Fold:
Amino acid sequence: QVQLVESGGGLVQAGGSLRLSCAASGRTFSTYDMGWFRQAPGRSVKEREFVAGIKGIGSSTYYADSVKGRFTISRDNAKNTLYLQMNNLKPEDTAVYYCAAVFRPLILGVTTTGYDYWGQGTQVIVSS
Structure:
């Protein structure tokens, strides 16, 4: 069982930056693949969008095209914490951001679906 708590959201002007954090419980955080997702205003849970992911073993990363070059995902396994550095934010980045975890050590590459554990989300609002 993994419990996830996001923080770091807020209101920022277009072009600005924010860093989201996700604190995870459990001693095996380093073995979980982690991801960031977002749900835009008016969209359903099923329309929650993959943003970025990072493997537990090897820490390879993968990004959605919409954020590539602007967002950076990272993890600190000693602190059981996942991060999302968001630069050059755009109004279309406005959403509730969720971190998620899945245990798939035998799968090569970052998965974009099928995560088992979710945080409660943190709101990001980008004003134009």
In short: The two ends are 40 Å apart (CA to CA). The chain has a mean pLDDT of 95.
